[in-house]
Amino acid sequence: MILQDPKFSLNPVMRVGDQIVEAIRIGDRRISRRDAHRKAIEMLEQVQIREAARVAQLYPHELSGGMGQRVMIAMMVVREPDLLIADEPTSALDVSVRMQVMSILDELVARRGMGLIFISHDLKLVSKFCDRVIVMYAGRIVETIEAKRLHEATHPYTRGLLSCLPEINGPLEPLPTLQREASWA
Questions:
Q1: Which helix (H) or strand (E) holds 117?
Q2: What distance lies between CA 138 and its chain's CA centroid?
Q3: pTM beyond cutoff 0.90
Q4: Is residue 185 very low, low, confident or very high in pLDDT (cuts 50, 70, 90)?
Q5: Residue 117, beta-bridge partner list
Q6: Which of 5, 30, 93, 117 satisfies CB 3.0 to 4.6 Å to 97 for a cystine?
Q7: Helices (H) then strands (E): counts for the chain
Q8: What element of type H or E holds 145?
Q9: 88 with 120: CB under 8 angstroms?
């Protein structure tokens, strides 16, 4: 499971490479520490971290948000799961890094043949990287729809989520004017 913010998910007193090695060795105690370390470096390279050996020696607080999220992805994918759950994996990232991280995740999922459950409020992002969207409200499924047909969603909550997203070329609506009350005079 890839969690929202690596700053709260990674162990602050362990180097990130050691955390990936630990994830590898939990699943296979027969692998030597040296081989696990080599595999951790390879995984960091697969998530497009430059100077992976150097980065493996860093502590989580020494990483940017995007790099921390890539380390989290590496740690979760290195065990080669059949299903990966990503809970708001880009919410702590700025927009430019968000698409890079999602592209890396999408490529890894496709190459390894994993299933992905992507939990997010960002329906536009979900529709770019998922086949099907399940919308939940108050713990219940209220709508299931193909991602490419998301614009055809009918449930009021789904429509609300879609309509709250800003559009660059959307219609300009005048700001409401405040009515002065007599008590303000």
A1: strand 115-119
A2: 22
A3: no
A4: very low
A5: 85
A6: 93
A7: 8, 4
A8: strand 140-146
A9: yes
